[in-house]
Amino acid sequence: MENLRKANEESHRVIVESLREALYRLLVTKDIRDIRVVDLIRLAGVSRGAFYKSYYLVTDVLEEDIRTITEDVGAAMGADIALNWRVILRTVYRHRGKIPLLLKAGMGMEMLDQINRSIEAVDDEEQALRVMAWNGIVFNCIRYWAARGFADDPDELADRMAAITTPLFDEEPQ
Asked: What is the pTM assigned to this prediction?
């Protein structure tokens, strides 16, 4: 029975990965609104039932990647703003193939919502506002960088962003 469970889990993982890869391939040439389930399953080589076993909408396929990217970015948050920027931008750079396609698919607000989940852990209202402001800056930096095709070196951009944001966040509010 344990072997059957493992085989089912592996089969599910392969199906999900096939759907994800197929969707990203379609997003290169199509708008998300023009991608139908039939297009996706045909390219992925899976059945309609396999799709609906895991997903409801085509965009649902992208949500796990959004969670992964934003969790990676969130894990970089610490007290040192310059180090935060370096870790965040290096992390984003590793995902540079997916981020422009996620934004093109209209998933930007889902990305920001995931980033903003860090606010839930903050009890102090003033600190929550600071975290919200920081998250907005991080998200918009990612959007800006993606729009430029990730042309900037991550460490150079991190230095520039640290110079801009350190005066905003490195001191306690008055």
From this structure: 0.76
